[in-house]
Amino acid sequence: MDHINRLVIQRKIPKDQARSWVELVALGPQPPKYFVSHSWGEAFREFMVAIEHFARDRCVRVRDTYWICTFAIDQWDVNLGGQLRDSPFVEALSEAESCVLQLDTRASSLTRVWCLLEVFMILNEPGKDLFVMTPNGLVGSQKVRSGPAIDALRLIDSRTCQASKDVDRRQILNFIANVPEDTGMKKTQSGDLCMPKELDPAFPKDQYEAELIRDHGNAFEMFNDEIRRWATDAGSSALSLSLCRLSRVADIRERGLSLTAIRNLAAHSRALCAAGKMFKYRTTTETVSWESLEIYDLGWTYLHLNLQDECSYMEAVEERGQQPEYSVCMAYSTKLHEVMAAIEWHAEARGLPDNTVYWSWFFSLSRQEVSDYLGRNVSPTECVTEVIEGMVMVLTANGVDNNGVAVVETLRRTNPVQEMFHFFMDSEFEAKTCDLVCATGALAGTNPFAWSRYEFGLFDPRIAEAILSFDVQKVSSQQQTTKDAFLQTLVGTPVDCDRLHSFNRQLQALAVGSLLRRAAYCNDLDGPLGLKQVVGKSLVSLTSRRLGGLLGETPLSAAAAKGHLEQIEFLIDSSADPNMGDDKGEAPLHYAALAGQEAAARLLVQRGARATNESHFSERPLDVALHNPADFVGVDTTAVAAYLASL
Questions:
Q1: Which residue from 319, 543, 604, 647 has the least number of CB within 10 angstroms?
Q2: Cα dihedral sign, 112-48-150-349
Q3: Cβ proximity of 529 and 488 under 8 Å
Q4: How many other β-carbons are positioned within 10 Å of the β-carbon of residue 485?
Q5: CA-to-CA distance for 184 and 204, rounded, in angstroms?
Q6: Alpha helices, DSSP H only, in 309-452?
């Protein structure tokens, strides 16, 4: 949101014309129905996804209004008043019917003392509701009854929260402690607060706050408890966990864990790391941190040291079996925090509630069962492929090979590759999904995500390059006989090379869209991951919808928006369609018009782009140029509008 302020609002509204964004765009006063509390550090995409969820869940009407400080306050002259009751936040909160607390994936709002104050006030105001929104949906709904948001709410601590200005933090801490708000703040001779507000040097920063928190600890705990109780009512139990055998689930296909339970596993593991009770694989003295905790270490600590190899983790935390919907596959050396980030991306991309059930060898099998499978050179995950709806392949980059390509262990091992092969090549898996997921985004392998999208988030380009370089015949094994048997298992004897090449092409195709759009945007034509290299390595048609980004934008649209003429020429020469639209029907010429790229617009028209194409909003490229919606970031569409008008 800070970027929105600096790159949009303050560029559109010069300081000598200072006013709020709402005053710029609204026809008159708009009393708020919903007060929105958010962190300035929240990613705008996550903010908007959460707002869209809220609008759908609560049936928000077009005329219903939100009060959002980024847009409601003059950002050139932020006047928060003297007393808290005089601040625009409190005034707007008192007028609004409800409060919406926005939590990003880091729950950063809960580290800001202004946000906590707003939540506390709404919880203590009769007749007003609090809604906590995340990119996955409404906290307390079926989709979000566990996870980082719930855990952060339960662990909330107003004593450690921060504010952009030290004086604001002191004033709010005074309010929480039930002491006069202006204590420790500079005053005039008449006893009024100095404006702008300042700390009184007679009350040293940090020392005053520490003494305040020490002397009024009960007040802070009561403040925290008010919010924690709300979180407890909204979610399910997350942090209490003891390991002992609760059940015996003989059928390992029934050993699934819900997304809630997996989040609990991560929370408990993190706590063990912090307490020095998570140990490196095959040791009982060398502890491991959360950042370096690998799946190997997790299995050793939980299954061997805690459960004495008696059962799986699932049998230690669940009283009965449950059939999984998705299996999760990763290399043994993958770090748990990377696995969790990948699973969260998968759940968001597929729109899954937190009662979705996953299966993975590290929590669904005992150590002995894992050893038995590996001893027979059989993938543990194969036992559940017939009952699941899809597979999640977790990919992480660990160094580079001799060619400078990232090493992705999951793509170099026989077992996970064999599982992927079945999902991509065998007709019996046609209706199932196989998604490739990393810590920053997801690629849909066999069936698209919602709205026919094949990429969600921002997929790691290093891993995308490794996918593009994938060759099934280079998959490694410790023994050549095992490798030969692996290829024969895939395609029979003699080895059907055409079928292997087909698998290579299908897997490589997943990375092409991400790499092409990046190259087009960055004006990379001849580099190692430039357009020529990527197009040359791939057999994917440049008219494939698989190449679209989060909005369905094509590589050609990206090149048009940036005005990269050589790239436009190359892509069209390579059979890109100059009239192919995105999710909203906006073609590359619309993008050139939006960005004020006259030369790009001329070239597109010369190469077959139709200036009469209309988007789903019934807008031609000329209409976009005339409206100039990107004016606030300094885009000048005068020249491109004149050219399009002349056609």
A1: 319
A2: negative
A3: no
A4: 15
A5: 8
A6: 313-317, 336-350, 361-364, 367-375, 414-425
Specify the pLDDT at position 239: 38
Query: Which DSSP string corresponds to 311-329?
Result: S-HHHHH-SS-B--SEEEE
CA atoms within 13 A on the CB side of 379: 24
pLDDT in tens, 107-131: 888 888 888 888 888 888 888 888 8
pLDDT tens for 26-74 read 989 999 999 999 998 888 988 998 999 899 888 899 889 999 999 999 9
Both tokens of 238, joined, read 């997350």
Q: Do residues 108 and 42 touch, judged by C-beta distance below 8 A?
A: yes
CB atoms within 10 A of CB 416: 22
**Complete domains list, the chain, with CATH:** 2-234 (no CATH), 252-394 (no CATH), 577-645 (1.25.40.20)
Helix, strand, coil percentages, rounded to 5, for the chain: 50, 10, 40
Q: Which 3 state secondary structure label does DSSP give 248? A: coil
pLDDT at 383 over 50: yes
67 contacts: CB under 8 Å, gap ≥ 6: 32, 34, 35, 36, 92, 95, 96
Distances, alpha carbon 234 to alpha carbons 14, 142, 435, 567, in Å = 43, 10, 31, 51
Q: In this structure, what token pair is assigned to residue 297?
A: 């270490």
The residue type at 264: N
Question: Which helix (DSSP H) or strand (DSSP E) does residue 134 occupy?
Answer: strand 129-134
Spatial separation of the C-alpha atoms in residues 205 and 187, rounded to whole Å: 16
Q: What is the mean pLDDT of residues 476-504?
A: 73
* Cα 294 to Cα 56, 311, 328, 364, 408, distances in angstroms: 39, 20, 15, 17, 15
- CA nearest 283: which of 296, 268, 274? 296
pTM of the model: 0.77
Secondary structure class of 521 (helix, strand, coil):
helix
Please list the residues that pair with 573 across neighbouring strands. none
Q: Are 128 and 65 in contact (CB under 8 A)?
A: no
Number of Cβ within 10 Å of residue 577's Cβ equals 17
Instruction: Locate 407 and state its tokens.
Output: 């090493």
Strands of the 137-138 sheet, one edge to the other: 66-68, 34-37, 98-102, 129-134, 137-138
Residues near 585 by beta carbon (within 8 Å), at least 6 away in sequence: 613, 614, 615, 616, 617
